[in-house]
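Quiz preparation item.
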């Protein structure tokens, strides 16, 4: 019986050892060639033969001779987005050992001029160009993380001289753009009441929701403002149009408040939010606040309803500290007046004292009797 128990113990140890070895081997096998914790993400503009790549263009990254996941453009001339409220970014997955290797890109099956260095976990703007037979490539934008870029297209000698300081338009302003959507003259337009101002610098790529060059922009107080998130106060809501217009790089939206409007904010921190009609949710946009000029400035990459808002600061809670209770002055009892029991000695002590007194008197009487 003992021998049988010993054999069972040995068998259990043996099975445990085999399972441990299998787990170690499986973990080692899973570790080989496993992708890093985060891919490298890419977004930017994309042109083919100097023109914006049409919507539906497939873009893919290639590393180590392996084609990674691809994305399909939904807006002409751009893929992905830094704020991720539009199309998904291009993800390039590789093993840890491949960090530092060169990534090449395919646009519609053709090799792009630009390349990048694989850096896991990084979000990179990389403008992609594919040269065609008709014209040279147009790099455009900054190629952050890329190892090569194309040269800028020469400026035509027929380009008209531009004014040094752009005029400020009220409510609406026409945009002068190239066929690729690049703004050729800086443009400033403000709301009629001066509450908000849009600044679109020269060189900005501006397109409408269909991907066509943007012809005009508008800004005005929003007539219909969606309900703000609970606990949030909306001070100024601006309708920037046309809705769905996109800009690369983002343009500047500035709110200018009057003294009375600024006073309403109190000690709260102003913020800028845009309303996403698809998700029906307000989303915050990074903003810069300048109390000296009573302005709040944000960079916006697309047009929608933008609101200057804040979360009111709750009033400081004050806890009243009770004053120390002064001892109640006791009035001397007048003859014939009974003093409340609570103001004198407690009844138990009075009863004990009376019993002790009676006992002492009785003892004294007995002692005198015995002595007599």
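Solution:
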């Amino acid at each position: 019986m003992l021998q049988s128990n010993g054999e069972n113990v040995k068998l259990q140890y043996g099975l445990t050892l085999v399972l441990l070895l299998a787990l170690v081997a499986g973990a080692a096998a899973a570790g080989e060639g496993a992708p890093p914790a985060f891919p490298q993400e890419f977004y930017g503009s994309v042109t083919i033969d100097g023109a914006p790549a049409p919507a539906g263009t497939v873009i893919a990254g290639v590393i180590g001779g392996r084609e990674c996941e691809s994305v399909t453009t939904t807006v002409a001339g751009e893929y992905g987005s830094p704020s991720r409220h539009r199309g998904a970014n291009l993800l390039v997955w590789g093993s840890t050992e491949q960090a530092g290797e060169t990534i090449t890109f395919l646009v519609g099956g053709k090799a792009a001029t630009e390349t990048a260095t694989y850096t896991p976990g990084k979000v990179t703007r990389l403008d992609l160009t594919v040269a065609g037979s008709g014209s040279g490539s147009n790099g455009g934008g900054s190629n952050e993380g890329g190892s090569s870029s194309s040269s800028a297209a020469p400026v035509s000698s027929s380009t008209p001289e531009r004014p040094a300081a752009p005029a400020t338009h009220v409510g609406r302003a026409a945009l002068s753009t190239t066929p690729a959507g690049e703004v050729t003259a800086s443009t400033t337009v403000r709301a009629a009441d001066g509450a908000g101002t849009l600044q679109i610098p020269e060189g900005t790529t501006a397109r409408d929701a269909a991907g066509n060059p943007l012809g005009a922009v508008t800004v005005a107080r929003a007539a219909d403002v969606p309900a703000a998130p609970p606990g949030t106060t909306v001070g100024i809501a601006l309708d920037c149009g046309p809705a769905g217009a996109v800009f690369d790089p983002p343009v500047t939206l500035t709110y200018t408040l009057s003294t009375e409007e600024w006073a309403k904010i109190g000690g709260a921190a102003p913020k800028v939010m845009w309303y996403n009609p698809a998700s029906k949710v307000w989303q915050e946009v990074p903003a810069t606040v300048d109390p000296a000029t009573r302005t709040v400035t944000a960079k916006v990459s697309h047009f929608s309803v933008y609101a200057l808002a804040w979360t009111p600061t709750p009033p400081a809670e004050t806890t009243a500290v009770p004053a120390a209770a002064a001892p109640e002055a006791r009035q001397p009892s007048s003859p014939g007046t009974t003093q409340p029991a609570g103001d004198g000695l407690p009844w138990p002590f009075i009863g004990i004292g009376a019993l002790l007194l009676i006992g002492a008197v009785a003892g004294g009487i007995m002692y005198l009797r015995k002595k007599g």
